[in-house]
Amino acid sequence: MRGTRWIRENLGLALLAFGMAFALWAAAVWEENPPVERTLADLPLVFHGLGSDHVVFEASAERIRLRLRVPRAIEGSLSPQDVEAFVDVQGLGEGAYERPVQIRIQRRGIQILSVDPPRVRFRLERVESREVPVSIQVLGQPAIGYQAGNPLPALSEVRVSGPRSRVAVAAMAVGRIQIDGVRQSVETQVRLAAVDPQGVLLPELNVEPEQITVTVPVEQRLGFRELPVRVALQGRPARGYQLTEISVDPPTVTLTGDPRRLEEIGSFISTEPIDLSEARGELIAEVPLVLPAGVALVGSPATVEVRLQVEPILSTQVFQQVPIMVEGLRPGVIARLSPETVDVILRGPLPYVENLRPDELRVWIDVGDLERGTYTLTPTVTLSAPVANLSWTLIPPNIQVSLMPAPTPTRSR
């Protein structure tokens, strides 16, 4: 009895002591590992309990924003894979529903602060499928003088599957193919999408196969012919120059006229001759085409733009035993060179190189920043006038330079 009475008299004190101890422990844990807020802004929403013969569509949300309170110790390692947002549809039949979003967290010590949205509206229907015809839309027009035939899909029908109500209104599977400006038949893979009778997309439906091969035949129209342009030239460039580049815009043209006249033209259409006599540099000219009688150019005037590049022929000349000049030599210092001359091989435009005189060529070294001693230096080549596309080689490429005090003159007695 006395023991029981003691317990009754001291129970309150014991509970108070336990509560104070727990509070102190919680405060210590909080101080050592304080919680922080963490937001998972793009968490995918899944539906649990969904049978293979049913499908969810028209869901009011597919992603969830979740705010959590997380212990700092695990905040850095928490990932979306640790959290699942789901709606339980177990046992539901066809119809429209609104259900709460549930959260499952794989890690301990995490508190959910908010779920956005907390509830989701959706429709649940039985999955059905059926065959629908394929329709291919051809976009654009082939090049002038060409015509496109009807598109030829590899399959005339494909299977669509998805919610029963959407399958019921599916009219066809459509695809698009681009042929703008083409000059030959096009064969490519085209992605298909299901549409209703008004052409509105039905994104809830799957199409099998999703892509098919489509061919659009393209051929030249009767009375039209496309030919490359050949630039006719006469004369020769200036001496020492050569034609290095020729371009024409457009490179091909489309002609129209009597089919027999078109066949008689040959494999190209020529321009009026361009005179290259004494030409040098870049030449740009609008040049007429030579068109047979009864033949016309389609879509533009009967001229083309021709660009010609006439550049010097590169040549080589060797200058032997060219003396090396020394610049920047300080007072009281002399330079000894080994060797004192080099051979210079010049490569550049023929008109310049073949007329270059030895006195127009200068080979030198600069020793202005050097102290006394022995150095290996690469001489510099300077010409009397700068020339583009000029290069040189020195033999030998380097020389040895010794900088030493100038000898003191002796006094005669």
| Distance linking N and C termini | 144 Å
Number of helical regions? 5
The unreliable regions are: none
Work out the radius of gyration. 45 Å
Strand content: over 45%
CATH topology description of the largest domain: RNA Polymerase Alpha Subunit, Chain A, domain 2
- Secondary structure: helix percent: 10-25%
- Average pLDDT, rounded to a whole number, is 85
Task: Give your account of this protein's structure.
With 413 residues, this protein is mostly beta strands. The chain is built from five helices and 34 strands. The strands form nine sheets. Strands 2, 5, 8, 11, 12, 14 and 15 form a seven-stranded mixed beta sheet that branches. The chain has a five-stranded mixed beta sheet with strand order 6-4-1-3-7. A five-stranded mixed beta sheet has the order 32-30-27-29-33. The relative contact order is 0.08.
Topology, pairings included?
Layout: H1 2-32, E1 35-48, E2 54-57, E3 63-71, H2 72-75, E4 83-88, E5 95-100, E6 102-105, E7 111-116, E8 119-139, E9 146-148, E10 152-153, E11 157-163, H3 164-169, E12 172-178, E13 186-191, E14 193-195, E15 206-208, E16 211-216, E17 218-220, E18 224-230, E19 233-234, E20 241-249, E21 252-257, H4 259-264, E22 269-270, E23 274-275, E24 281-288, E25 295-297, E26 303-312, E27 314-327, E28 333-338, E29 341-349, H5 350-353, E30 361-366, E31 373-377, E32 380-383, E33 391-395, E34 399-405
Parallel strand pairs: 1-4, 8-12, 18-22, 19-23, 27-30
Antiparallel strand pairs: 1-3, 2-8, 3-7, 4-6, 5-8, 8-11, 9-17, 10-16, 11-15, 12-14, 13-16, 18-21, 20-26, 21-25, 24-26, 27-29, 28-34, 29-33, 30-32, 31-34
